[in-house]
Write a structure and sequence with these properties.
With 702 residues, the protein is an alpha+beta fold. Helices cover 49% and strands 15% of the residues. The protein has a domain at 33-128 and 198-271 and 562-698: Thrombin, subunit H (Beta Barrel). The protein has 25 helices and 21 strands. The strands form 3 sheets. Strands 1, 2, 3, 4, 5, 6, 7, 8, 9, 10 and 11 form an 11-stranded antiparallel beta sheet that branches.
């Protein structure tokens, strides 16, 4: 067995051992000291934390943390760390911003970015920062709409109810955004109200080589030696935002065993999925995604090797593709472990037995597991057209994304908000408009790679004789069609996009832009596939999952956390290493280890300014740390917080054992990885010469 496979499959098997020691719900582990849980702020287990660690967060503490925590529309988390809107996050959370602000003469990803003063801080295109201001329960309203709907209209009714709540809750409030979120697989629906900041500017980003030191070989491993940190600033009316509620900066590193919290927005988990759903993920979704990512990765590597400019253009996309590939590889290995699947099946049987033992509950619940199994089997027939024509259409092409947004916005905005596709409802239009209007560089060669890969893989997987493929390609090859679309479109110009957006359906109909015409000609096919999936798969699954959720609540109460949904959560844990196969991993690294690991060759090459600054640094300064906090993708940039509510670091990764975290948590080996505040401060002072930024952070430091 290859070493990489051993390294990933071994932790997956240990994850399954934990899943054999679970509480009745089949989610929370009962092992002593287990710190499992991505908890909502309105349902945080303070008493449990108090009994385990001697500190029980009170409402005022939770409110202050919630008001300092940020969700970035780049798919990351962050936190406010000064009274003037300064925000701490990860470098990889702003890498698209740095890439968009770069030029052939100045590669801000490779060189780094430092704003000497606030006048030099630069707008991050498309980025928005959001802070939760309130959370309210709207379960009854949404579930009532679902209950009243016919079998073919479940998703339509649910979406209409959610959009109605969102539009009503944020009506007339330009600085807010509202989002209804399904929790516990439809067992609860909550409305999250956000204070939004649409003007987010880059302040500081180190060089890629030090922020991602160790590259792909060290990714999802530990020890790590990364300064994966960056700062942006929130602006309002052209001025830095006033943010009196923020996290104080801690000067020192946390101690081994110290209680720490992570406040962030974990993207998604599948810990409440049925066995039938996990089988489909294992056998269909993950393998196909990995095959597609693998081919795209190869094309990007080949392109990046053509020259320095090609390498610069492809670097951002290649980084994201490689990171996704490795993360999904770990999830696939976990699901391929028969021991884990046996435990998941046991948990499901246990829940079903408890339901069957209560005649009244059994009558109300019926057999939702069978309904889900039937729906997932049906989806297998629809998966490929749904994947290639709807959810993955255009793949990573920015031009295609603009074209579809414009075509669909033109068609949807003329309808009442609750009758639109939900992503075009009134509550979501402002952010979509910002993303369409904001200027960012478009690279034709990169667009060709993305579009050509999508079109060729669509033809390959759906086959040449498929009517949908024939309608999509006509008589052209993927290469010919790609060239025509990229050369003929004018959508790289934000002024053109603005005119089409503001002109609505009439402007779309009148447009002769080749990409607009292409998307418009095939949108009916994509919509038809989407509707079929909603009616025949998502609708039955939604109704069945709600019945399972009700059964869980009836048996176990609500003393558990819901699956992650890229909404604000709080996890608790402690600073700790781990022991694996007889070896013990210490929880801290320092600058001395960074310099010892540097070889001068990628991916262990330090920037020259770091080599020059070595004598100025205290090499014993802690750099990165591992903790037992339960996280998943989306937590990147989340603040690591001590019991006093001070920020002590920023989460940037998990270890290799955490890659099965979609499906469970093993407190013995699952670890979160963060870069520490003392290292960031030292770098600002002694490597980058940014005393004003360091002083702003340390004005209230303790």
């Amino acid at each position: 067995m290859p070493d990489d496979l051993k390294r990933v499959l071994g932790p997956a098997r240990r994850l399954s051992r934990l899943l054999g020691v679970v509480c009745a719900l089949g989610l929370l582990c009962t092992g002593a000291g287990a710190d499992e849980g991505m908890w909502t702020f309105d349902h945080f287990p303070s008493a449990t934390v108090g009994s385990r660690y001697g500190f029980a967060p009170e409402a005022a503490w939770l409110d202050r943390i919630r008001n300092s925590a940020i969700r970035l529309t780049s798919g990351c988390s962050a936190s406010i760390v000064s009274k003037d809107g300064l925000v701490l996050t990860n470098h990889h959370c702003v890498v698209r911003c740095a890439h968009a602000l770069s030029s052939p003469q100045h590669d801000l990803v490779a060189e780094g970015f430092t704003a000497a003063g606030r006048s030099e801080e630069k707008l991050c295109p498309g980025m928005q920062a959001e802070i939760v201001s309130s959370i309210s329960d709207v379960t009854d309203e949404v579930q009532a709409a679902i209950k009243a709907a016919g079998d073919m209209d479940i998703i339509k009714a649910r979406n209409a109810a959610m959009v109605s709540v969102e539009d009503r809750s944020c009506h007339g409030e330009a600085q807010t955004r509202c989002q209804v979120v399904s929790l516990y697989k439809g067992g609860q629906y909550k409305i999250y109200k956000y204070r939004k900041y649409s003007d987010v500017r880059l302040v500081f980003a180190p060089e890629f080589s030090v922020s991602f030191f160790g590259g792909d070989p060290d990714n999802f491993n530990f020890p790590r030696y990364c300064l994966d940190s960056a700062f942006v600033r929130l602006y309002e009316n052209g001025q830095p935002a006033s943010t009196p509620t923020h996290l104080a900066w801690r000067r020192s590193a946390p101690a081994p065993g110290e209680l720490v919290f992570v406040a962030g927005n974990p993207g998604s988990t599948s810990r409440l999925d049925t066995v039938a759903q996990l089988v489909q993920v294992r056998d269909w979704r993950l393998p196909i995604r990995q095959l597609l990512l693998s081919e795209l990765r190869g094309r990007l590597i080949e392109f990046s090797q053509r020259g320095a400019e090609q390498n610069r253009i492809a670097a951002d996309t290649l980084f994201l593709v490689e990171n996704a590939f490795k993360a999904l590889y770990g999830r696939e290995r976990a699901l391929l472990d028969p021991e884990l699947f046996g435990q998941k099946a046991d948990q499901e049987r246990e829940l079903r037995a408890k339901v069957a033992a209560d005649p009244k509950l059994a009558a109300a619940t019926a057999d939702p597991w069978a309904d889900i199994a039937q729906a997932t089997a049906l989806y297998q027939q629809m998966f490929l057209p749904h994947r290639f024509l709807e959810v993955g259409a255009g793949s990573g092409s920015e031009l295609y994304r603009y074209a579809r947004a414009l075509v669909r916005a033109g068609a949807e905005r003329g309808k009442p908000s609750a009758e639109r596709l939900p992503e075009y409802s009134d509550s979501k239009l402002a952010l979509l408009q910002k993303e369409v209007f904001d200027a960012r560089p478009i690279y034709p060669d990169l667009e060709r790679i993305e579009l050509q890969t999508w079109l060729s893989k669509t033809r390959e997987y759906l086959t040449v004789g498929n009517a949908l493929v024939q309608h999509l390609l006509g008589s052209q090859s993927p290469e010919e069609l790609t060239d025509r679309l990229v050369q003929g479109t004018r959508l790289a110009d934000p002024k053109v996009r603005k005119v089409l957006w503001e002109g609505g359906q009439a402007a779309i109909d009148a447009s002769d832009d080749v990409l607009i015409r292409f998307v418009a000609a095939h949108d009916a096919d994509a919509r038809a596939v989407r509707l079929r999936v909603e009616q025949q798969v998502e609708g039955p699954v939604t109704r069945a999952e709600e019945r399972i959720a009700r059964a869980r609540f009836a048996i176990y109460g609500d003393s558990v956390y819901p699956d992650a949904t890229f909404t604000l959560r709080l996890s608790y844990g402690r600073v700790d290493g781990w022991t694996y196969e007889g070896g013990t991993v210490a929880p801290f690294t320092n600058f001395a280890g960074l310099y010892d690991r540097a070889t001068g060759a990628e991916p262990y090459r330090l920037p020259q300014r770091w080599l020059d600054a070595k004598a100025k640094l205290d090499l014993s300064t802690p750099l990165d740390v591992s903790t037992t906090n339960d996280i998943i993708g989306g937590n990147s940039g989340s603040p690591l917080i001590d019991a006093q509510g001070r920020v002590v670091g920023a989460i940037f990764d998990g270890n290799i054992h955490s890659l099965g975290g979609d499906f469970g948590y093993d407190g013995r080996t699952n670890r979160s990885i963060a870069v520490l505040t003392p290292a960031i401060s030292a770098a600002l002072h002694h490597v980058y010469g940014l005393p004003a930024l360091a002083d702003e952070l340390e004005a209230e430091a303790q």
